[in-house]
Every structure is written in structure tokens, then in C-alpha cells.
Design brief:
By secondary structure, the protein is an alpha+beta fold. It folds into three domains: 1-145, Arc Repressor Mutant, subunit A; 148-260, Winged helix-like DNA-binding domain superfamily/Winged helix DNA-binding domain (Arc Repressor Mutant, subunit A), CATH 1.10.10; 262-353, no CATH class. The chain is 39% helix and 21% strand. The protein has 14 helices and twelve strands. It has helices spanning 17-20, 28-40, 57-60, 72-81, 126-134, 144-147, 152-164, 176-182, 191-206, 263-272, 276-288, 293-305, 311-321, 344-353; strands at residues 12-16, 52-56, 87-93, 96-101, 105-109, 119-123, 138-142, 171-175, 212-222, 228-239, 249-252, 258-261. The chain is globular. The protein starts with 11 loop residues before the first strand and ends with a helix. Residues 243-249 and 325-355 have low confidence and may be disordered.
């Protein structure tokens, strides 16, 4: 182990500079998992050979400002499931890059009736573990700050700023193209929109809500056409006293815009994989037809299991016409279902198994 011993227990994480600067696209929940994991790696009796780590719900749920902590396992499980089949890419030299899976194995263990004892077991690739343990440069931070930032680009920028806060008095410059590539911004996105998403919005959220504040200055360059374009960004990072933030929900639209969703809207997005507009249409239709929350989620669960092309349209039809033997959305099935007879523990299991 080449880096200094981490202090502060599991609530302080160390994120290596190689991972901070790697090119990947994780949403805010996935970065939550990495933060929690990086708080565990290298802590206590952890050895260099060990690659298996447990995230115990009872140990981490207090880090979220959730209104209902009993949802902590479901919240974290949804985030981990999105890691399945994903990895990150490092450039070793001019002609060589390396792809690593985030996790070589994931195990979900839920204790019904005692969610505090539920856990998620993650196996790291041995070289990823070595990368973390041997890194000499990187960011140490209390995970409560990025954990409760609401925008994924705020998180990515926070890690970069923490890595540089002790460098040259907190002042550093990075090319705008490299910043775009680091955060996996498509080339088709205009610089003005990118600036708003990866600089302006994080500026509003990081400053005053974390342990740092920053200012930035755009460095322009002249293009062959004679026009001016953003060539680099100069940052100035300042340390602050500890503070706390409030968790919200964010959804990323197909055009790259980030929109804050309500808890109810985000829950529907997670269940049926729809857009924010479609989630709002579902909620509005459910309320207009006086459907209870239980009725709505029974319909969502039934729809998930059906082989239909337009799931949102199917849900809207059931919400409007009812869920009985004569429903117009699916007369052929001839299923008579009572809302009062639904097993909601089984409902949760079915929902989560489809994420």
C-alpha cells in the first residue's frame, strides 16, 4: 500500500486520480455506490489481497437525508443493478487503453422484515483494487457531500475539485475538451449547453452545500475561422467548514438535459423506465381516475410482466378503464384481480427484479 492511511473511518473515501480522470458515464446513484465502497476499501483490517466488500444497509442509511430510511435498501439496490455490464476505460499510453468492469461480481441479500440486516456484496477486479490501494494521488472527502448532491455532473466536478484543492493553492487549469471527454459529453452538444450543465449548475450546487467552494474563468481560443471558442477552464478551489445538503431526484433526458423529478415521479421512472413527462402523465391519469398508490403500482407491476410494446400507453389504459375481466387493454387474458388482495412484498420483489 503506497498511499497514506485513510482517516475518518468508512465515512471518508479516497478516490484515486486515475478513476477521477477516467472516462465513464455514471448517474448520481451509481456514484453513491462508489463513494460508499471507497469509504470501505483500505479501512480497518482490509488487506491488499482482499477484493470482496459488503455494503450493510444499517451502516450507510443515515448518510442519506431520506424521509423514510426503510427505503434505503431499495434505493441502493437500484443503483447497483445499473452497474451490471458496465465498466470504465483508462488510457495507458498513446496506443493502448484498458477497459475494466466496475465489479466482477455482485450479490444482493435482502432480509425481509429486517431491512437493516440487508446487504450488497461487491467483488472488485484485483487490478482495480491494486489501483485504489497503490495510488499516490487522489481525493480524500467525506462521502456525505457528494452523496447528497443532486446532479451527476456536480458529483464528477466535486471529485476533480477535491483532488486539486491542495494543488498550487487550489488553482488549476484544464482544457475544455478534456473536461467534456472526462464527463462523457457527446461531441454534438454545443459548448454553451455543456458549460451550463458541467459548470454553471455544479457552481450553484457545490458552493454552499459542501466543504468546498469554487470560482471558474473561461479561457478562450481563436479558431481558424476567426471565431472564439472555449479552450480551457481555470478553477480556484477554497476549503469551507462542513455543511449538509438535502437529497432530491434527478433524471437525464435523451437530449442531455438534467431535470429534477419529485420522489413520486422518480419512483415511476425507476419502475417502468419511462421519461419524466410520461411519469407525470401516469400520475395525472391515476389522480384523475381516483386510483390509489397501491392500485397504481399493481398496474405497473402487471404491465412489466406483459409483452407489450407501449408500456406507458398500456398503463394509462388500465388506469382509465379499470383492471377487471372486461378491461379493454387486455380482454383475452380474462384475469379478475382485486386490489385488496395484492401482496405488496411480492410487488416490491417483482419491481426490483426488473431493474
Amino acid at each position: 500500500m503506497n498511499r497514506k492511511k485513510k482517516r475518518g473511518g468508512t465515512e471518508v473515501a479516497f478516490r484515486p486520480q486515475t478513476i477521477i480522470e477516467a472516462r465513464y458515464d455514471l448517474d448520481r446513484r451509481q456514484n453513491d455506490i462508489l463513494d460508499i465502497l471507497l469509504g470501505i476499501v483500505g479501512e480497518g483490517d482490509d488487506t491488499e489481497e482482499n477484493t470482496r466488500y459488503e455494503i450493510n444497509i444499517a451502516d450507510v442509511k443515515h448518510l442519506y437525508n431520506l424521509q423514510d430510511e426503510s427505503n434505503a435498501y431499495s434505493y441502493l439496490q437500484k443503483a447497483v443493478k445499473k452497474f451490471e455490464g458496465l465498466g470504465f476505460r483508462l488510457k495507458e499510453d498513446e496506443g493502448t487503453d484498458i477497459y475494466y468492469p466496475w465489479f466482477s461480481k455482485i450479490k444482493y441479500q435482502k432480509k425481509r422484515g429486517d431491512e437493516g440486516r440487508s446487504k450488497i456484496v461487491l467483488d472488485l477486479h484485483p487490478e482495480v483494487k491494486e489501483m485504489i490501494m497503490s495510488a499516490k494521488q487522489g481525493a480524500y472527502y467525506r462521502i456525505e457531500y457528494p452523496l447528497n448532491l443532486t446532479k451527476k455532473y456536480s458529483k464528477r466536478l466535486y471529485y476533480l475539485l477535491k483532488d486539486k484543492e491542495n494543488f498550487n493553492g487550489g488553482t488549476f487549469t484544464i482544457s475544455f475538451d478534456e473536461l467534456r471527454k472526462m464527463m462523457k459529453i457527446p461531441d454534438s452538444y454545443a459548448n454553451g449547453n455543456v458549460k451550463r450543465e458541467i459548470l454553471d449548475k455544479p457552481y450553484e450546487e457545490i458552493n454552499g452545500n459542501t466543504d468546498i467552494a469554487f470560482e471558474y474563468e473561461l479561457v478562450y481560443e481563436k479558431l481558424p475561422s476567426g471565431q472564439r471558442s472555449i479552450g480551457a477552464v481555470r478553477f480556484k478551489v477554497k476549503k469551507l467548514k462542513r455543511n449538509k445538503t438535502v437529497i432530491e431526484y434527478e433524471t437525464i433526458e435523451k437530449d442531455g438535459r438534467t431535470i429534477i423529478a419529485s420522489e413520486e415521479e422518480q419512483e415511476i421512472i425507476d419502475v417502468i423506465d419511462c421519461s419524466l413527462k410520461e411519469a407525470r402523465d401516469i400520475i395525472r391519469t391515476a389522480k384523475a381516475n381516483k386510483r390509489t398508490r397501491e392500485q397504481l403500482f399493481e398496474i405497473l407491476t402487471y404491465t412489466i410482466k406483459k409483452n407489450v410494446g407501449n408500456k406507458v400507453g398500456y398503463v394509462l389504459t388500465l388506469l382509465k378503464n379499470g383492471y377487471n375481466e372486461n378491461r379493454s387493454a387486455d380482454k383475452a387474458d380474462n384475469i379478475n384481480s382485486s386490489y385488496s388482495q395484492m401482496d405488496f412484498e411480492e410487488l416490491e420483489k417483482q419491481i426490483l427484479s426488473n431493474k
